[in-house]
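Q: How would the structure tokens look for this protein?
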Amino acid sequence: MSPKESAPTWVALAVLAAIGAGLWARSRGGGDRGPEATVYAMFEAVGKGDVAKYLDCYGGELLDRLKAAARESGDARFAEDLRRRGEGMTGIAISRPPGDAASSAESAILRVEQVFRDRNEAQDYSLRRRRGRWRIEGIGPANTVKMPIPYGTPVYAPESATNVMSAGGTGQRVP
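A: Here is the predicted structure in token form.
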């Protein structure tokens, strides 16, 4: 086979090798998944009480303080505290604060809102990318908003809905 005839074969092999390398890197956690992925991973570790994965989401002085707290209380107690912290949380919302000029390719500020049945808690998380990994390095004070009607509360009592519906949807109550 002449070099001219084998060129398409080599090109196909090169393309397949590049695709394989990309898939392998992705399966190994390679690639930048963004700072949001770190926050989601942290909350997943909270729910599972996974101390190692929880600590892996942090960096800088905050990581040092958390490691010290884990050592003081012991892994089992720290894991239980993590699980308890996540109890009752029905969801989280992550956004970038408006007018965020501090974010760059190496640092980001994310507004994280934890949704509970009776309240929402919003905090700003500061993250920094080091060696290709995003880590939480600071968490601002929590802004808690009590919900006037707890999440999941029916709008009206179920029997009232039945009465209204049996009136043909007119909104009149049927005795």
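Strands lie at 89-95, 107-116, 119-130, 133-139, 143-146.

The first strand starts at residue 89 and ends at 95.

Upvote if useful.
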